[in-house]
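Aim 2 progress update. The chain analyzed this quarter is reproduced below.
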Amino acid sequence: MQTRASRSLTRPVRRGRARTGALRTAAVLLAFGAALSAGAQVAPSSAERAAYTGLLAAAAQGDAAAVGRAAPGTLEVRDARGRTPLHVAAFARQQAVIRALAQAGADLGALENDRYDAVTIASVADDEDTLRLLLSLGASAKLVTSRYDGTALIAAAHLGHDRVVRQLIAAGAPLDHVNNLHWTAAIEAVVLGDGGPRHQKTLQALIDAGANLKLADRQGNTPLQLARARGYAQMVRMLEQAGG
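Predicted C-alpha coordinates:
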Protein backbone atom coordinates (compact mmCIF):
# COMPACT_ATOMS: atom_id res chain seq x y z
CA MET A 1 0.00 0.00 0.00
CA GLN A 2 1.34 3.40 -0.97
CA THR A 3 1.74 5.84 1.90
CA ARG A 4 1.18 9.60 1.74
CA ALA A 5 4.95 10.07 1.97
CA SER A 6 5.64 7.67 -0.90
CA ARG A 7 2.93 9.35 -2.98
CA SER A 8 4.55 12.73 -2.37
CA LEU A 9 7.87 11.34 -3.56
CA THR A 10 6.39 10.01 -6.81
CA ARG A 11 4.57 13.22 -7.71
CA PRO A 12 7.69 15.14 -8.81
CA VAL A 13 8.76 12.16 -10.93
CA ARG A 14 5.38 11.99 -12.64
CA ARG A 15 5.29 15.72 -13.16
CA GLY A 16 8.84 15.60 -14.51
CA ARG A 17 7.87 12.89 -16.98
CA ALA A 18 4.83 14.86 -18.07
CA ARG A 19 6.94 18.00 -18.56
CA THR A 20 9.53 16.02 -20.49
CA GLY A 21 6.85 14.57 -22.76
CA ALA A 22 5.34 18.00 -23.31
CA LEU A 23 8.73 19.49 -24.13
CA ARG A 24 9.47 16.70 -26.60
CA THR A 25 6.11 17.22 -28.30
CA ALA A 26 6.70 20.98 -28.44
CA ALA A 27 10.14 20.43 -29.97
CA VAL A 28 8.67 18.15 -32.64
CA LEU A 29 5.98 20.73 -33.43
CA LEU A 30 8.56 23.51 -33.74
CA ALA A 31 10.72 21.38 -36.00
CA PHE A 32 7.72 20.48 -38.10
CA GLY A 33 6.69 24.10 -38.41
CA ALA A 34 10.14 25.07 -39.64
CA ALA A 35 10.21 22.19 -42.11
CA LEU A 36 6.72 22.95 -43.32
CA SER A 37 7.52 26.60 -44.02
CA ALA A 38 10.58 25.51 -46.00
CA GLY A 39 8.93 22.68 -47.92
CA ALA A 40 5.24 23.45 -48.33
CA GLN A 41 3.51 23.50 -51.69
CA VAL A 42 4.52 26.40 -53.87
CA ALA A 43 2.13 27.70 -56.51
CA PRO A 44 3.66 29.23 -59.66
CA SER A 45 4.61 32.86 -59.10
CA SER A 46 3.43 35.63 -61.39
CA ALA A 47 6.92 35.73 -62.92
CA GLU A 48 6.85 31.98 -63.57
CA ARG A 49 3.40 32.18 -65.13
CA ALA A 50 4.51 35.01 -67.39
CA ALA A 51 7.50 32.96 -68.55
CA TYR A 52 5.52 29.81 -69.30
CA THR A 53 5.13 28.65 -72.87
CA GLY A 54 3.22 25.82 -74.49
CA LEU A 55 1.03 23.67 -72.29
CA LEU A 56 2.31 25.22 -69.07
CA ALA A 57 1.07 28.60 -70.30
CA ALA A 58 -2.20 27.06 -71.47
CA ALA A 59 -2.74 25.44 -68.07
CA ALA A 60 -2.11 28.69 -66.23
CA GLN A 61 -4.40 30.66 -68.55
CA GLY A 62 -7.22 28.11 -68.77
CA ASP A 63 -6.79 27.37 -72.47
CA ALA A 64 -8.25 23.87 -72.62
CA ALA A 65 -8.33 23.86 -76.43
CA ALA A 66 -4.54 24.06 -76.49
CA VAL A 67 -4.36 20.61 -74.93
CA GLY A 68 -5.92 19.12 -78.05
CA ARG A 69 -3.37 20.92 -80.23
CA ALA A 70 -0.39 19.91 -78.10
CA ALA A 71 2.45 18.01 -79.68
CA PRO A 72 2.89 14.38 -78.63
CA GLY A 73 4.95 13.96 -75.49
CA THR A 74 4.28 17.45 -74.12
CA LEU A 75 1.58 16.50 -71.61
CA GLU A 76 4.23 15.90 -68.96
CA VAL A 77 6.45 18.90 -69.67
CA ARG A 78 7.81 20.33 -66.42
CA ASP A 79 8.86 23.72 -65.10
CA ALA A 80 11.88 24.39 -62.87
CA ARG A 81 10.04 23.06 -59.81
CA GLY A 82 8.90 19.91 -61.58
CA ARG A 83 5.31 21.05 -62.04
CA THR A 84 3.47 19.53 -64.99
CA PRO A 85 0.57 21.28 -66.74
CA LEU A 86 -1.75 19.30 -64.46
CA HIS A 87 -0.11 20.72 -61.33
CA VAL A 88 -0.27 24.24 -62.77
CA ALA A 89 -3.94 23.78 -63.65
CA ALA A 90 -4.69 22.44 -60.18
CA PHE A 91 -3.05 25.42 -58.50
CA ALA A 92 -4.96 27.78 -60.84
CA ARG A 93 -8.27 25.89 -60.44
CA GLN A 94 -8.52 25.55 -64.21
CA GLN A 95 -10.96 22.68 -64.27
CA ALA A 96 -11.56 22.65 -68.03
CA VAL A 97 -7.82 22.22 -68.56
CA ILE A 98 -7.70 19.43 -65.98
CA ARG A 99 -10.49 17.60 -67.77
CA ALA A 100 -8.79 18.04 -71.15
CA LEU A 101 -5.45 16.82 -69.80
CA ALA A 102 -7.07 13.73 -68.29
CA GLN A 103 -8.86 12.95 -71.54
CA ALA A 104 -5.58 13.33 -73.42
CA GLY A 105 -3.89 10.81 -71.13
CA ALA A 106 -1.93 13.00 -68.71
CA ASP A 107 -0.56 11.28 -65.62
CA LEU A 108 -3.03 12.19 -62.85
CA GLY A 109 -0.64 10.89 -60.20
CA ALA A 110 2.43 12.87 -61.29
CA LEU A 111 4.50 14.31 -58.43
CA GLU A 112 6.35 17.62 -58.61
CA ASN A 113 9.74 18.21 -57.01
CA ASP A 114 8.34 18.41 -53.47
CA ARG A 115 6.36 15.21 -54.20
CA TYR A 116 2.91 16.74 -54.31
CA ASP A 117 0.25 15.48 -56.70
CA ALA A 118 -2.79 17.36 -57.99
CA VAL A 119 -5.10 15.71 -55.44
CA THR A 120 -2.96 16.93 -52.54
CA ILE A 121 -2.68 20.39 -54.11
CA ALA A 122 -6.47 20.70 -54.34
CA SER A 123 -6.92 19.25 -50.84
CA VAL A 124 -4.52 21.70 -49.22
CA ALA A 125 -6.20 24.57 -51.07
CA ASP A 126 -9.59 23.45 -49.69
CA ASP A 127 -10.70 23.35 -53.32
CA GLU A 128 -13.60 20.93 -53.14
CA ASP A 129 -14.68 21.36 -56.76
CA THR A 130 -11.26 20.68 -58.28
CA LEU A 131 -10.75 17.73 -55.94
CA ARG A 132 -14.15 16.31 -56.89
CA LEU A 133 -13.27 16.61 -60.57
CA LEU A 134 -9.87 14.97 -60.17
CA LEU A 135 -11.33 12.05 -58.26
CA SER A 136 -14.11 11.61 -60.83
CA LEU A 137 -11.48 11.48 -63.59
CA GLY A 138 -9.64 8.66 -61.84
CA ALA A 139 -7.02 10.45 -59.75
CA SER A 140 -6.13 8.52 -56.60
CA ALA A 141 -6.62 9.58 -52.99
CA LYS A 142 -4.25 6.81 -51.89
CA LEU A 143 -0.87 8.15 -53.01
CA VAL A 144 2.00 8.76 -50.59
CA THR A 145 2.97 12.37 -51.17
CA SER A 146 5.24 15.13 -49.86
CA ARG A 147 8.64 14.98 -48.20
CA TYR A 148 6.81 13.84 -45.06
CA ASP A 149 5.67 10.61 -46.74
CA GLY A 150 2.11 11.62 -45.99
CA THR A 151 -1.16 11.62 -47.87
CA ALA A 152 -3.69 14.16 -49.09
CA LEU A 153 -5.89 13.06 -46.18
CA ILE A 154 -3.22 13.85 -43.58
CA ALA A 155 -2.59 17.25 -45.18
CA ALA A 156 -6.29 18.11 -45.24
CA ALA A 157 -6.79 16.91 -41.65
CA HIS A 158 -3.89 19.07 -40.48
CA LEU A 159 -5.65 22.12 -41.97
CA GLY A 160 -9.16 21.23 -40.79
CA HIS A 161 -10.59 20.97 -44.29
CA ASP A 162 -13.43 18.80 -43.11
CA ARG A 163 -15.44 18.55 -46.33
CA VAL A 164 -12.31 17.71 -48.29
CA VAL A 165 -11.51 15.08 -45.67
CA ARG A 166 -14.91 13.47 -46.22
CA GLN A 167 -14.35 13.44 -49.99
CA LEU A 168 -10.98 11.77 -49.59
CA ILE A 169 -12.35 9.20 -47.17
CA ALA A 170 -15.13 8.36 -49.61
CA ALA A 171 -12.49 7.94 -52.33
CA GLY A 172 -10.62 5.34 -50.27
CA ALA A 173 -7.85 7.41 -48.73
CA PRO A 174 -5.90 5.31 -46.19
CA LEU A 175 -7.27 6.26 -42.77
CA ASP A 176 -4.34 5.06 -40.69
CA HIS A 177 -1.33 5.96 -42.82
CA VAL A 178 1.59 7.03 -40.61
CA ASN A 179 3.89 9.68 -42.06
CA ASN A 180 7.60 10.02 -41.34
CA LEU A 181 6.83 12.27 -38.36
CA HIS A 182 4.93 9.26 -36.99
CA TRP A 183 1.59 11.08 -37.20
CA THR A 184 -1.73 9.90 -38.61
CA ALA A 185 -4.54 12.08 -39.93
CA ALA A 186 -6.27 11.85 -36.54
CA ILE A 187 -3.12 12.93 -34.71
CA GLU A 188 -2.53 15.86 -37.07
CA ALA A 189 -6.13 17.03 -36.69
CA VAL A 190 -5.34 17.44 -32.99
CA VAL A 191 -1.70 18.51 -32.73
CA LEU A 192 -1.66 20.83 -35.74
CA GLY A 193 -5.24 22.02 -35.45
CA ASP A 194 -6.77 24.81 -33.41
CA GLY A 195 -9.39 22.67 -31.68
CA GLY A 196 -12.11 24.70 -33.40
CA PRO A 197 -15.25 23.65 -35.30
CA ARG A 198 -13.62 22.61 -38.57
CA HIS A 199 -10.93 20.53 -36.89
CA GLN A 200 -13.64 18.97 -34.71
CA LYS A 201 -15.63 18.08 -37.84
CA THR A 202 -12.45 16.70 -39.40
CA LEU A 203 -11.81 14.50 -36.38
CA GLN A 204 -15.44 13.37 -36.35
CA ALA A 205 -15.20 12.38 -40.01
CA LEU A 206 -12.18 10.23 -39.22
CA ILE A 207 -13.93 8.70 -36.21
CA ASP A 208 -17.05 7.97 -38.27
CA ALA A 209 -14.92 6.28 -40.93
CA GLY A 210 -13.30 3.98 -38.37
CA ALA A 211 -9.82 5.49 -38.04
CA ASN A 212 -7.62 3.71 -35.50
CA LEU A 213 -7.57 6.06 -32.51
CA LYS A 214 -5.05 3.94 -30.59
CA LEU A 215 -2.15 4.73 -32.91
CA ALA A 216 0.32 6.94 -31.06
CA ASP A 217 3.07 9.39 -31.93
CA ARG A 218 6.76 8.72 -31.26
CA GLN A 219 6.33 9.79 -27.63
CA GLY A 220 3.51 7.28 -27.18
CA ASN A 221 0.71 9.88 -27.16
CA THR A 222 -2.63 8.90 -28.67
CA PRO A 223 -5.03 11.50 -30.16
CA LEU A 224 -6.97 11.47 -26.87
CA GLN A 225 -3.88 12.17 -24.79
CA LEU A 226 -2.83 14.93 -27.18
CA ALA A 227 -6.28 16.52 -27.07
CA ARG A 228 -6.22 16.48 -23.26
CA ALA A 229 -2.74 18.03 -23.22
CA ARG A 230 -3.87 20.83 -25.52
CA GLY A 231 -7.07 21.50 -23.58
CA TYR A 232 -9.38 20.67 -26.50
CA ALA A 233 -12.39 19.68 -24.40
CA GLN A 234 -14.76 18.93 -27.27
CA MET A 235 -12.21 16.74 -29.01
CA VAL A 236 -11.58 14.94 -25.74
CA ARG A 237 -15.31 14.19 -25.42
CA MET A 238 -15.48 12.98 -29.02
CA LEU A 239 -12.50 10.68 -28.59
CA GLU A 240 -13.69 9.34 -25.26
CA GLN A 241 -17.10 8.56 -26.73
CA ALA A 242 -15.39 6.76 -29.61
CA GLY A 243 -13.33 4.68 -27.20
CA GLY A 244 -10.09 6.45 -28.08
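The first helix runs from residue 4 to 39. The radius of gyration is 21 Å. These observations will guide the mutagenesis experiments scheduled for the next reporting period.
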